Amino acid sequence: MEDGQANLGFDVAWVGKVLLERQAEERDPVRCGGPVGAVVGAGHPFIQAVHRVAGLDAVLPQLLDGRLVLDDHGDLAQRLPVRVRNRPEGALDELLEGSCASGGAGDAAGRAARALGHDGQIVATPFQRTLPPYDPRVKVVHTDRHRGHDPQVETYLGVPVPACEVPQRAEIIRDALAADGGFELVDPTVHGTDPILAVHDPGLLRFLEEAWPAVERQRIERDFLVADTYPTRGMFAGMSEAFVAARPEPVAVGGRTGWWGLDSSNPIRPGTYDAARSAVDVALTTTDLVLAGETAAYGLCRPPGHHAAAAMAGGYCFFNNAAIAAEAIVAATGERVAILDVDVHHGNGTQQIFWRRDDVLYVSLHADPKRLYPFFLGHADEIGEGRGHGANRNFPMGLRADDATYLATLDSALERISDEPGSILVVSLGFDTFHLDPIGDLALTTDGYHEMGRRVGALGRRLVILQEGGYHLGALGENARAWLHGAEGRPAAGGSREPGGGTIPGP
């Protein structure tokens, strides 16, 4: 962290709530400058920091001639979301008192960081006399490198069928968000392999890097690589765990593909490894943005990731983008992190990775695995083991569950998340719950996605939103746009952003 800069763990709505409460109590809301209506210079460390985080001038004060005049917006309390909970008011007190008492920027950032319990990324430059324009657009992290993974067919029950997980998916979503005007497309930064290895077996990384060169070297005349033999549990029945663990990895690339794979619908192409690496960079750049102060950011990850386990690819997934992001957040903040998975398929890989850990809560809403992939995991009785006991919660959904049914279950999922400490929520966002999706069997609508996003945003946590599935190309862009509008507090069909988002209605 650069000198004089800090990461603030509160958002503008919470700041507004605290200031209004102080006003009601006839307390000095800024503790250095008189009563409500006092002028606070734009260079004040607190004003600089909060402006950078959430655009304070858009919600609470009015920007007049480079100065901020704190005044009473009578309707502000009505616009505050549920996101004001679990915020330490003492952190605001210490920041205000410290920055006013010291009269300088040097110690204000340090006081803020100490009050919030951790050092963070750069979000504010105290005493900058000219405020940078606040850009309310949600950042969308995207890269064209995903196009390297371009399967034309996949196999379903042994028969080649047109591929569902195709480059057009990401292109459609990108184009829809770009045309909306409320989103800013940004490129990912390269993060290397260390964050991957914090979650995945080095052997999986090595295999995916070597797979297509091995196809060429072994002169396998195929357009894509999938396995036809997998080491299922029946093969090793009666053998000790130590014996099974000592079995050597095959040399033939077909055998290695089964060794590191789950299913035959996960084709590897010449550009698959680079595309999978780029999806990780997208996820981590999205995480960086939120750690640096964004309330929410969206990572247009492709290929998706939630079926990839620590030592296994599968289900269109190669590296687990959401798990890698969650691990990075834990490492950077020391906080607990929650993952909400709303793809139609259970995220078996994410569950496996954090099964015995209590610092990452995994909550998934998905089609009942008794009838839909991944079939063998995702049941309600899977709650974690060891230290992870209770940190896994599955909500299997009935056939053709509609908006009302799904949203009622979502409320239960969000209630479980709200009980967990932490300020950041990772969302594994899938649109294969759509009623026309070719491989899903739920019945959500575009309006349902908007309401889902609104309820998730109203939880009050900063959001790292990462794309998973969704295969009905005709509605994919509008579904993504609707969900993100909801999370922002924007109307489903467009319109201006409503600062502070919405609130979950009562039953």
Strands of the widest sheet, in order across it, are: 7-4-8-13-12-9-10-11
Instruction: Work out the number of β strands.
Output: 13
Sheet-strand content, in percent, reads: 5-15%
Global morphology? globular
Summarize model confidence as the mean pLDDT. 79
Biggest sheet, open or closed, and with what strands and sense?
A: 8 strands, parallel
Structural class: alpha/beta
Number of helices: 16
Q: How much helicity do the residues have?
A: 25-40%
How many angstroms does the end-to-end distance come to?
45 Å
What is the radius of gyration?
24 Å
Give an overview in words.
The chain is an alpha/beta fold. Helices cover 36% and strands 12% of the residues. It contains 16 helices and 13 strands. The two termini are 45 Å apart.
Topology summary:
Blueprint: H1 12-24, E1 39-41, H2 45-54, E2 62-64, E3 67-69, H3 76-79, H4 89-102, H5 105-116, E4 138-141, E5 153-156, E6 159-162, H6 168-180, E7 183-186, H7 194-197, H8 202-217, H9 241-245, H10 253-259, H11 272-291, E8 296-299, H12 321-333, E9 337-341, H13 348-353, E10 360-367, E11 392-397, H14 403-418, E12 424-429, H15 446-458, E13 462-467, H16 473-488
Helix pairs in contact: 4-5, 6-16, 11-12, 14-15, 15-16
